[in-house]
Amino acid sequence: MDGRLANRWRLTVNEKKFIETALASNLRIDGRNPLEYRKIIIKFGREDGSSEVQLGQTHVMGFVTGQLVQPYQDRQNEGMLLIFTEFSPMAGPSFDPGHPGESAVELGRIVDRGLRDSRAVDTESLCVLSGKLVWAIRIDLHIVDNGGNLIDAANIAALAALLTFRRPECTLGGDDGQEVIVHPPEEREPLPLIVHHLPVAITFAFLGSEGKLVVDPTHSEEAVMAGRLIATVNANGDICAIQKAGGEGVPQSAIMHCLQLASMCAISITKKINSAPWDYVFCSKSNFIL
Amino acid sequence: MESERDDGRSPSQLRPLSCARNVLHRSHGSASWSQGDTKVLAAVYGPKAGTKKNENPEKACIEVIWKPKTGQIGKQEKEFEMILKRTLQSICILTLNPNTTTSIIIQVVNDDGALLVCAINAACAALIDAGIPLKHLAVAICCCLAEGGYVILDPTKLEEQKMRGFAYLVFPNSIVSVLPKGSSHVEG
Fold first, then answer.
1. B18 DSSP β-pair partners
2. B7 located within any domain
């Protein structure tokens, strides 16, 4: 039991040196090459708008719910998109159940910026009665297992959940046409959200003194890295957001290289997210064991 | 008095159960338990050094953290944490590792009735997966009293809303020992 009395996890000096030396010969400790992503498995829950994403050992769950609320004063015609991130103490021994730490806030902000500022979700279609009632879409991201690269996994979970979320249809009725009637799913088919494009976050880690680049760092690589760059791009090649918060300085050419790599990774990940609902339905409805 | 339930079960029939253990990599023990559509994920970390302020340092301490599917943590979550803590304290051997804390984290994945019961079963399975020594297993079941005065087991969410009252019963299991598969293999 002694080995488990660890309240905090620390990487040993030997492991650190091993990771750095292996990278000098372009080898990563889990056998991938430096620009390769881990296997992404996207599963869905029973209800609309719930997704579960596994990126290697990282496990994130996303839940999307909708509620009718009053709009903001300065945005009377637009719905709201709210993102809540929870670093569950389940994910790692150092996560406290109390107030969120800086990495939880950073993750929430990156996912939020990628979705809101790039206008990926159409908020004007969420307006029911201008100035009075709009839909507020709430995305809850629960980090359940920390195997490294939480930001990418959380982003994919949010996108997968948004694609499968259905909101009830509302019509205006009543005597003055101001009354809002929300139709239950048995009466009218619920509607999907209008998503224009899928902004995918790709994380790059810079390791060692020469700033070797790896994509999708694992937990141990994150503990060793000197700096990190997160680029949110979509399949069309548009850059939605870039985050480089502190760490070692990197030359401009490295950043341009990262953005090009990100565009290429984004295309394959977007294809995976788009085909995930169909693949999942096919596997669960048929008797194949894959 | 036989009566039809919405999903065609008889009054004392349970929904299909399924359990998977060791589903998470970072935690010391984990299990996912589902009864029909209700699904709960439990993870165990422990024992960690030190106890909280109001706890007795001469015994091991159990800490339960309940994470709801969406929304803020409110009074109902605190109540579930308290009930789960007391239940698990009665099955763990507290005198074994004094001045340590074992944390159990419960994440609700889907709630379709009998949630607390599913959580107790998941927590017990996660404790076994972590190898925490237990006096016996805790097996929980939910019974409710319907309008007509008869008892039904394992209600769904719709059935729960129509009930007059419920009881969650937790039984100690009298099996001698439970070893996770693979722990008895010793590679030479």
1. B34
2. no
Determine, for residues A140 and B107 on separate chains, whether the beta-carbon distance falls below 8 Å.
no
Chain A residues inside the 8 Å CB shell of B126? none
Yes or no, beta carbons of A144 and B103 under 8 Å apart = no
Cβ contact, residue pair A59, B27, below 8 Å:
no
Q: What is the pLDDT of residues B144-155, one digit of tens each?
A: 888 877 888 888
Flag whether B158 is in a domain: no
First-to-last C-alpha distance (Å) of chain A? 37
- CATH number of the domain within which B30 lies: 3.30.230.70
User: What are the φ and ψ backbone dihedral angles of A226, each rounded to 5 degrees?
Assistant: -95, -30
Range of the domain at B124: 17-136
Report the domain count for chain B: 1
Residue B5, in any domain of the structure: no
Interchain CB distance below 8 Å, B24 and A145: yes
Q: What is the pLDDT of residues A257-269, one digit of tens each?
A: 999 999 999 999 9
Per residue in B123-175, pLDDT (tens digit) is 999 999 999 999 888 888 888 888 877 888 888 888 888 888 888 888 887 65
Q: SS3 for A103?
A: helix
Q: Which residues pair with B106 in a beta bridge?
A: B42, B66
Domain annotation covers residue B149: no
Cβ–Cβ under 8 Å, residues A137 and A68: no
**What's the predicted TM-score (pTM) here?**
0.88
CA of A65: which chain B residue's CA is closest? B70
Mean pLDDT score, A262-285: 84
Q: Which of A46, A90, A219 sits opposite B24 (nearest CB)?
A: A90
